[in-house]
Specification:
Radius of gyration: 48 Å
Low-confidence stretches: 1-8, 23-27, 120-126
Mean pLDDT: 74
Structural class: mainly alpha
Number of helices: 8
Distance between the termini: 130 Å
Number of strands: 5
Helix content: 40-55%
Oligomer: single chain
Shape: elongated
Strand content: 5-15%
Length: 208
Amino acid sequence: MCATELRARPRARDGYFVIRRPALYYDKPLGGFPVDFQRVTVANNESSDRHFFNSFSLVLGCLIAFAVVLFVVARLIGVASQSKNVLVDPMRVKDVERNLAPFAHVAVAGHDNSALNIAPASNAPAADVPTTGEQAFTKVCSACHAQGINGAPKMGDHAAWGPRIAQGKDALYAHVIAGKGNMPPRAGTTWPDATIHMAVDYMVSLNK
């Protein structure tokens, strides 16, 4: 046996490791028959994993790039559509003008303030005035009197309404018109006296 035969080392070939045995194993007979050892090949798993990782990274990168391009295109189309349709929409333009308009004007003494004159009430549309006491109650009065909020006597609470009704309707009319407690004058409306009277009469009729 020579030293060179014992120093045989595996060599890589086409992605596989070739393991060579020392020469003494090739020709030594075994039971009268020569033994011929063939090369043993071992798959290179590390190379296969690296190839898979590279392929997966390439596919993932392509998908991300496609998503970015798609987002940019959609954004450009959206901006163009908004500038053509949304920004020139009449309702939107009207809202913008109303928001930009000053909410108050200041009259300066000694200057021409005619531009600040408010149009007379006769030119304004007719106010939404209820025609019955029930409508007045439903529209405004029920906000407090239905649940007894802010100290208002609750509808159906005869103990709370009894002393008030005993004062007479004229006193109740005066309380509503002038305001009392947490209730502002005319219950926060601009209704005429006749409408106030109808609302009071309706509530009194339900609490007698």
